[in-house]
Amino acid sequence: MTGKIALVTGGTRGIGRAIAERLLRDGANVWLSGRAADTVSATVEALAAAHGDDRVGGSAGSVARREHVQDMVDRCVARFGKLDIAVANAGIESGAHFLEIEDDDWDEVIATNLKGVFLTTQIAAREMTSSGGRIVVISSTNAFFMESHIASYNASKAGCVALMRTAALELARYGITVNAVGPGLVRTEMTEGLVRDAEHGPRYLEGIPAGRFGTPEDVAAAVAYLASDDAGWVTGHHLIVDGGQTIGVELPLDATSRQT
User: Fold this and answer.
1) Is the pTM here over 0.85, yes or no?
2) Where does 5-243 sit in CATH, by number?
């Protein structure tokens, strides 16, 4: 990816930071965004120390606000001269029983996870129409494999997939591919409570055939492929990265035996 310019939203921690690090390691220059200016600055400083001051930059803002996303893209292009890759990763989660969900909590999740992806995809694509590019949306297995108490998150991720496929259909004529990566349970700051829970962590792990939780680097590897030249004929695809969790249910042999 030498010479490629990438924008990564939510790039200061977890999956987003792993994506930024992977793209940098593969040769791209990266502009990352996050909500807090001090966190963005600290992340840029750390990545610049590892990969070079001339290869990484960042800015703070909310992906739910058009002016902030436009500023991110404008500053990326001003710094590096163009935009080849955009990764719409920023996302949040808010847990509540379905009957207890508050409007403000619902609106915040949908604004960040779905509207933020729409704004990032649209504004980045406008910058790519003359030369083509790669857009990768971070969705989730929750787009089709529901988990309780996070209705707004589930709905937002399902919407991301529909949005991605629509954008892929309409943007292909410009040489822009649009794909999504759907992680299962990846061990990050957001999921650490469940992973470390003495009861629920092991029980959840029993449903993952690969026998482990995902890592941010697992997701970053999938993003790197979809953002690369190798994926030039792949668009509108939802690449699941979940250790086999959503393949199906494993049953014991004696429970599946049939007699005629």
Assistant:
1) yes
2) 3.40.50.720
